Amino acid sequence: MSQPPVSTTTGPTQAREGSLDAPTRHPLDWKHPDFWDAAALEREMERVFDLCHGCRRCVSLCQSFPTLFDLVDASTTMEVDGVAKADYARVVEQCYLCDLCYQTKCPYIPPHAWNIDFPHLMLRAKAVHFRRHGAPLSAKLLSNTTAVGRLASIPVVVDAVNWGNRQPALRGAIEKTLGVHRDAQVPAYRSPTALRAMPHDDPGEGAVAAGPTRGKVAVFVTCYGNHNHPTMVEDLVAVLRHNDIPVKLIRRNQCCGMPKLELGDLDSVDAYTRRNLPPLSDAVEGNWDIIAPVPSCVLMFKQELPLMYPDDAQVQAIRRAIFDPFEYLMHRQNAGLLKHDFRNPLGTIAWQAACHQRVQNIGPKTKQVLELVPDTRVTAIERCSGHDGTYGVKTATYAHARRIAKPVENRVKQAEAAHFTSDCVMAGAHIAHGLGDGATAEHPVTLLRIAYGI
């Protein structure tokens, strides 16, 4: 296998093979004309696929890599040059941008001279395809979480939507029209939403800084937290206030853009970002920290958008100000400010570490905080749930998603735990659905509220 030259598609590198420098991530140069050049993209995909074929370390992560390797092994040359270029799309379709190959497996990421960033290469391929061919109306609708959530959460509509999602006949019709598998777990919608149910915001007085945090929190409630799981937001606010942290909700917001990013619709990501920047920047300038209860939303503001807008001061300021909930609580713990007045032990907890939380490189903060509760032990399961946005519900990928989730489900069963949890409520619901025993997943912050007895 040859060693192709270094790619500069996603940014220049001064790396050298064998460098001991820390891993880095190049900005996503999506505004450069070369980014959208289909021929250049095809050459880069061939280069990276050739290197992945020679390594195969990521074969167990998701369906993208088995798809690639099967194509190679079935080709006449048994090398990447024998794979039809049209079949590259089959590899791209199976990538849901979990980022685990980059963050946990690949030995050839920058500053290595081979400069591989597989997730962002797949993102580029999705973006080029979307710009040239668009996407089915069903895919656009499923990725428009704000609009769908607003409609489905209308008081008169919400009961009908939830009822319909439980009817086999209607699910069959939805499968045909929207491509949502009839057996997939779909979230219920709630009314009132989190923003409507929690009208009271703290003024921000009495904040006490801890580590890089400033001691008062503005919550980015997320589409899911607002429309599907408002109790998650309520529990987060209760835990923060119990620890004497002033809290307010960011009340003017748009979807973080992750569903559109996964679709390759970068223009919509840009539009969402422009709407979100003013209220989030106002919070940062007012010395508020930002927390979002969904890992994908935190990752979007902490990693993806800063890489898309490396020179935007507002985006970079938000990156520095946003935290995972348990990352934030551990800063309080390290400063001696986290309360330990727990009333209820939690016993054994099976905790699935969500992919988009793992790749934030913050460590197992959820596990560390929950194990501060007396008589509580957390069994960590560091495997992907297979849900990952719409991948786990679409008819075309539902079977793959269930297969990816199976090892996690087996680990949950083996743990025989009192509680099952995941920081990603969608992943938790997907796994609980696969268990098939009526179990439900609880958000970790809900478990912490139970431990506090508040």
UniProtKB/TrEMBL annotation:
Domain of life: Bacteria
Pfam families per record: CCG (PF02754)
Keyword tRNA processing carried by entry: no
Residues spanning the membrane: none
Ranges for domain Cysteine-rich: 217-302
Region listing for Disordered, in residue ranges: 1-26
Assigned keywords, A-Z: 4Fe-4S, Iron, Iron-sulfur, Metal-binding, Repeat
Keyword Iron-sulfur set for record: yes
Biased composition (Polar residues): 1-13
Protein's UniProt name: Ferredoxin
Native organism: Lysobacter hankyongensis
